[in-house]
Amino acid sequence: MNLQISGLQKNYAGQCVLNIDSLTIEKRSFLGIIGSNGAGKSTLIKIIAGLVDASSGFINYDGEKVSHRIQQNMTLVFQKPYLLRATVFNNIAYPLIIRNMKRDDILTRVKEVMKSMDIEYLQNQKAWTLSGGEAQKVALARAIVIKPSLLLLDEPTANIDPSSVLVMEETIKKFHQENKSTVIIITHNLQQSKRLCKEVAFMNEGQIVEMGEVDNIFNDCNNPLTKKFIEGEILI
Ligand SMILES: Nc1ncnc2c1ncn2[C@@H]1O[C@H](COP(=O)(O)OP(=O)(O)OP(=O)(O)O)[C@@H](O)[C@H]1O
After folding, report:
1. Separation of 139 CA from ligand 1 center, angstroms?
2. Which of the four pLDDT bands, split at 50, 70 and 90, describes residue 180?
3. Which one, out of 56, 73, 90, 153, has a CA that is 20 to 30 A from the CA of 48?
4. Is the CB of 82 within 6 Å of ligand 1?
5. 155 CA closest ligand 1 atom index
6. From residue 81, how far is each of 17, 130, 138 by CA, in Å?
7. Which residue has its alpha carbon closest to ligand 1 atom 6?
8. Nearest CA to 174 among 141, 209, 206, 138?
9. Burial class of 67 by CB neighbour count within 10 A (0 to 12, 13 to 18, 19+)
10. Binding site membership of 39 for ligand 1 (Cβ less than 6 Å)
11. What PANTHER family does its record include (predicted)?
12. Which residues have CB under 8 Å from 213's CB, separation 6+?
């Protein structure tokens, strides 16, 4: 999915927390969003997902305004996984059930995703009994099972151990390679953005300070604020 953002602003109690003049995210992009706490990263991704209304401005999705059909084609994984009070299998199957997919196809698709993430052993476990890392894997499995054309990830691997991070990253990479999808990931892990993304956008105080190819941003950025941030200095 191709995204065109124009004049996007979000205010909370008269305070502007997001202000993006113009941003294009090409189809099949793999964009990382980095920046300090409160920079506006989650607000941006929630507006893209249609979960929060912008105060002004608009987003075009493949040249169209947001609609039910477009929203059916995107998924968002939060830092804290929201799972249904059901088994792991039913959690992953749910987005396919509500899209009226045939029973046999659901079975095949859910098994395929569980196998690729090595979580088949969890299929009958109740979602509320999962560990944090297991729940996060299930949330990712549920997000990719519909093969969305836009996958939005808000710190999907925060608070999980390195081997689970590896499974999640491999899954996200494979998903991006095998589908003609756009992936946007917010991460505080700069190494993770280097491992996964083609492009990175650095946000500060609601604005996109700089955006470019991963190598350019990390080795040859133009803005002194970006340089400070990636070198681990505190931005004040
Ligand atoms: N529902 C809300 N009501 C009031 N203020 C909000 C609301 N949601 C976000 N904000 C404010 O908007 C600003 C941007 O928040 P946002 O969650 O987008 O930042 P972020 O870059 O994702 O931060 P973090 O890295 O800590 O997750 C913050 O100052 C936050 O307090």
Report:
1. 22
2. confident
3. 90
4. no
5. 27
6. 25, 11, 8
7. 12
8. 141
9. exposed
10. yes
11. SPERMIDINE/PUTRESCINE IMPORT ATP-BINDING PROTEIN POTA, SPERMIDINE_PUTRESCINE IMPORT ATP-BINDING PROTEIN POTA
12. 198, 199, 200
Contact by Cβ (8 Å): 59, 4: yes
Helix, strand, coil percent content, the chain, rounded in steps of 5: 40, 25, 35
State if residue 42 touches ligand 1 by the CB under 6 angstroms criterion: yes
The pLDDT, as a whole number, for residue 236 is 66
Nearest CA to ligand 1 atom 17: 42
The 10s digit of each residue's pLDDT in 35-52 is: 999 999 999 999 999 999
Q: Is the CB of 38 under 6 A from ligand 1?
A: yes
| Domain architecture of the chain: domains with CATH | 3-80+149-230 (3.40.50.300)
Q: What is d(CA 116, CA 118) in angstroms, rounded to the nearest whole number?
A: 6
pLDDT of residue 235: 73
Q: Are strands 74-77 and 150-154 parallel, antiparallel or unpaired?
A: parallel
Contact present, 66 and 50 (Cβ < 8 Å) = yes
ipTM confidence score: 0.98
Q: Averaged over 206-217, what is the pLDDT?
A: 97
